[in-house]
Amino acid sequence: MASAGRTFTRALRSTPTTSAIKTAAPRRFAQAPKFQARRGYSSEAPKPSSGGGNGLLYGGIAAVLLGGGAYYTLGSKSTPVQDAKTSSAAGSKSGVITPTKEDYQKVYDAVAKKLVDEDDYDDGSYGPVLLRLGWHASGTYDLETGTGGSNGATMRFAPEGDHGANAGLKAARDFLEPIKEQFPWITYSDLWILSACAAIQEMGGPDVPFRPGRQDKDAAFCTPDGRLPDGAQGQDHLRGIFYRMGFNDQEIVALSGAHALGRCHTDRSGFDGPWSFSPTTLTNDYYKLLLEEKWSWRKWQGPKQFQDVSTKSLMMLPTDMSLIQDKSFKPVVEKYAKSQEEFFDDFSKVLVKLFELGVPFTSGEDARFVLKRSD
Ligand code: HEM
């Protein structure tokens, strides 16, 4: 697969298309030395989660039961941590630990190292799917009922883990499992969000401040199906989903820029292909491509999606395309296409908001910190 991947990479690198692509190319690839873009085909994707659904459920329940006795009550400003006896975290005294920023940095470093070590996946990095895990954990939030959100990490369990929208995220959860074993004091909920922040930073994105304090919950807290967006729809649907979480139009557009990263997989969502030529490096190319490329419906047997006319190698979902069809969304797309800096600033802010939706922190906003990216 690696050789096929290299061919694909070369094709992407040398394809002359829009000015956006030409001017961005040197910067883009210079920025991503960690992840040599390598294409692994979706047939290499991990087995669908359905087989592991019940195993996950029982495993998860066992973990909750076993973990029950290992929870330690900390001071009101601290984060309850699990299984402290086996923890390597500093400050462990009589079974009570308070993880410090340095402890979280160790987790970050382990994630960053594993991202580099395990580059034989998809386009050469687990980064995009880690970000998608953090987003899907958070994007179940419902402002009105206060349910859902990243607190709980309930996607570990059926039925949530088996929701159609979460197809393929087992790859990200499995990737993080050895890290959880190495740092048992961190909750899954914090680990998933820390890893999403790490993925963005390691893929050349902006700093994303992280605030710990999420606690894991059991399967009873799984959210109902249907809370995440459906790429086959348009702007009304997007507003319905994101307003429910408390976002506005500008924030919807800023969040969507994540689609500069990663790709669609036919065995996951049914859609196919990457949105950008640099799927493991965050840039504002998503917005540039939306505006500067010509897009037409792809002629194929799969779900309705757009493809770029000039190379036929990129894709846009109907929801992506609605950002330039809607008169309130489009000016924001234009703003981010002009300035990567403005996109990065707003992307960081809106991600902090997304990742903290519904989390009952006992600490204030001043407890956020930026973890240091790898060299
Ligand atoms: C606006 C509504 C959104 C829709 C309809 C949508 C839909 C999708 C779909 C269909 C996929 C392909 C999944 C697959 O086949 O593997 C995908 C992938 C992805 N999405 Fe979104 N998404 C949305 C918003 C977001 C947001 C807010 C983020 C993050 C902030 C995000 C990050 C990603 C990433 C990084 C991938 C690539 C995953 C990979 O390469 O495995 N998406 N999205």
Protein model, in words:
This protein is mainly alpha-helical. Among the domains are: 101-227 and 358-367, Peroxidase, domain 1, CATH 1.10.520.10; 235-350, Peroxidase, domain 2 (Orthogonal Bundle), CATH 1.10.420.10. It has helices at residues 2-14, 19-31, 50-68, 101-117, 127-138, 170-182, 188-202, 235-245, 249-256, 285-292, 318-325, 330-338, 340-356, and strands spanning 263-264, 273-274, 295-297, 306-308, 315-316. A three-stranded antiparallel beta sheet has the order 3-4-5. The chain has a two-stranded antiparallel ribbon with strand order 1-2. Helix 4 packs across helix 7. Bound molecules: protoporphyrin IX containing FE. Protoporphyrin IX containing FE binds at residues 128-129, 131-132, 135, 168, 229, 231, 238, 255-256, 258-259, 261-265, 268-269, 271, 317, 319. It holds the Pfam family peroxidase. Its EC number is 1.11.1.-. Residues 109-375 form the Plant heme peroxidase family profile domain.
Q: What is the CATH topology descriptor of the domain at 101-227 and 358-367?
A: Peroxidase, domain 1
Spatial arrangement of strands, main beta sheet: 3-4-5
Query: What about the largest sheet?
Result: 3 strands, antiparallel
Instruction: Enumerate how many helices there are, as a single number.
Output: 13
| Sheet/helix structural class | mainly alpha
If classified by CATH, what would the architecture of the domain at 101-227 and 358-367 be?
Orthogonal Bundle
The rounded Rg comes to 20 Å
**Approximately how much beta-strand content do the residues carry?**
under 5%
Write out the distinct hetero groups bound to the structure: protoporphyrin IX containing FE
Molecular shape: globular
Terminal CA distance: 29 Å
What is the C-level CATH assignment of the domain at 101-227 and 358-367?
Mainly Alpha
Order of helices and strands: HHHHHHHHHEEHEEEHHH
Low-confidence stretches: 1-31, 37-88
Q: Percentage of helical residues?
A: 40-55%
What is the count of β-strands? 5
Mean pLDDT: 82
